[in-house]
Amino acid sequence: MMKLQDYLAEFVYGGMDGIVTTFAVVAGAAGAGLDSSVVIILGFANLVADGFSMSVGSYLANNSENHTYEKYRRLEYLEVEQNPTEGREEIRQIFFKKGLRGATLETVVKAITANKDIWVDTMMKDELNMTPGVRSPFSKALVTFAAFNLVGLVPMVIYLMDFFTKLNQDLFFASGLMTAFAFIGIGLLKSYVGEQPLWKGALETFGLGSGAALLAYFAGNVLEGMFT
Known about the structure:
The protein is an all-alpha fold. Helix content is 82%, strand content 0%. It contains nine helices and no strands. It has helices at residues 8-31, 36-82, 84-97, 102-113, 116-127, 137-152, 157-165, 171-194, 198-226. Helix 1 packs antiparallel against helix 8 (171-194). It is elongated and about 80 Å long. The chain starts with 7 loop residues before the first helix and ends with a helix.
């Protein structure tokens, strides 16, 4: 069963990309003075297209990584079967570098090379620095897509409300305020995943989103002035 905590990294980075890109679209539309309906159309088009693109990229990257791992694992099995002497020496060198010597070293080498699976697993981890993926590429892609759309929807909530109820307020300011809180929240999660100080992740994410929004807003404003 899929547990959210096992996919927290995918949720954080999918959500962060979703909210940054969607708010950039909203800011660009606001800078151009576009109607709420246009903002909603552009925003949802961005969510679906970019979210799908990001999730496909995640799937392909993780699937390729798994195939690469299996390829080298097969090669290690061939080495163990066809050239065990060299394979044992590689195990010996691995644990020699870890500080083992003499009889202790030989005991460890003998124990590990007595089991092909343990032997190959040790070679994969300590010689090639490769570990197997514990989560499926599809589930990673699914979480990425869901996070992109869920968090990326935040900047458009006020525009959706305005479309149905005609709010009398500054929509871009309200969207920016909601997005700022979302930036901080996703930044805190980012810090948790990366084991960084909480303030650092929140500040980085807020700064990244604000910068993207400012660029998009001024780009929309300039382009609107050029074509009207």
